[in-house]
Amino acid sequence: MPQDPSIRRGGFLFLACAVLVLASVAAARRAPAWRWAAPARSASAPVVTLEPVASGLGQITAITNAGDDRLFVTIQNGRVLILSGGRPRSTPFLDVSNLISFGGERGLLSVAFHPQYAQNRLFFIYYTNGAGDIEIARYQTSATDPNRADPSTRVVLLTIPHPTNANHNGGQLQFGPDGYLYIGTGDGGSANDPPCNAQSDDVLLGKILRIDVDQNVNSPPFYGIPADNPFAAPGGALDEIWAKGLRNPWRFSFDRLKGDLWIGDVGQDQREEVDFQLRSSPGGENYGWKIMEGTRCGDGGSSGCAAGVPPCNSSEFVDPRYEYNHSEGCTVVGGYVYRGSLVPALAGRYVYGDYCSGRLWANGDRLDPAEPQLSTFGEDAAGELYLGTQGGDVLRFSQPNPPTPTALPVTTPDRVIIRPSRRVVTPRVIEPQP
What we know:
By secondary structure, the protein is mainly beta. 4% of the residues lie in helices and 33% in strands.
C-alpha cells in the first residue's frame, strides 16, 4: 500500500502512527528532498479531470465491480463497502476485521469476483492474517441478500508465510481473460530482498501466481494448477508461479479488450517500473528484481541468491515498459488500460500514477490532474476508470469542460419553464502537495 516517502523502503504505509515512528528512522539513513513541482502536462497527453464520487470512506486499498452497476471499495481495516449513488450502503458487504492483521502495509488488500459470479456468487479476498502471513480466501454472497457476504462460507485457499518483515505484501487479485485467478505477492520486505525471494523458485514471494479456482471447489486446497502453467511439471519451481522477479507488485490489471497484463512494481531507492506481458505469453517471465531495479543494476547485487541467477543486464530479464526515477515520485500505483466512453482521448492508453507525488500518466505522458496519496485504481462494469486515496476519496476520470447542455423549453398553458437537459458537474483539478 502507498507510503510516506520518508519511509520509502517500507513500501506502502497507511497509518499515521507508523509514518511518524518510522520516518525518523529512515531520515537517519537518507534525507532526500521529497518535494515535487506542480506537474506540467505532456504536450501529447489527453486532457482529463477527476470527478468526485465519494469521500470519507476510510483508507482505500482497492476498487472493483461484480459485473453490475455497483462499485465495491476495499478498506484496509477489513471492510468491503458497496457504493450506490455515490454513498456507501450502511452495512458493509463484508467485514473481516477480526481475521486480519492491520497497520502499516498489512490489512485487507483486494477483492476479486469470480467470472461467473452472477451464477455462483463466489468471490475471493487477499489479506494478511493475524500472524502477518498472506492469505487468500473464498466467500459466497448470501443467497437472500445480494449486498451481503455470507461469513460462514469462508474457505482458505493459500497461506503464504511472510516471516520477519511486515512490508512488501503485494496485495492484488485479478481474474485473467483465461478465467484463472492471478495473485501478486511482494518479496517479503526489508531492503534489497536479503533472501533473494523474488528470484527463488521454491517460495511464492516476489511473484505473480496463477491458479484455477474451478478445480477442487468443494475440497482442500480449493484450487488446482492450470495445466499450462510454466512450472507445472513435476520437480523444479513451485507450480503456482506464473512470473517472478518482482519487488512489490501492489497493483496489476488486465486490458479488458486485448487481455494483456500490466504490472506496477514498486521500486527500491531509484526507479519505479511498469511491466508488461502479452496475452499470448506462456508465462515464466523474469522481471529482474533484485538483480535489476528497472533498467539499472540493483544495489543488492546477487547476495542471498542461489547459484545460476542471471547477472545484471542479462537477456533473461524482461525490461519494463515504462519506468521513472525518484525525481517524479517514489511509489508507482499500477492502473488500467482505459476502455470506457467518458474520456475518448484516453482510449487504449494505460493510466497509472504515483502515491508520493500524486502524478498521473497515460502511456508515459503526464496528465494534468494529480491526486496526492493515490492508493489504487479501479474499473466499473462499463470500463470507466476510478481512483481511490488513502484519505478515503473515490474519484472518476472524466472529460473536462463538457459542453453546456441545450436548454429544453417545457411549455404549459400559462408559462414556459426552462430546464437544463442534464446537470453539469464542475470539474475538479487537484494540485499535488509537497
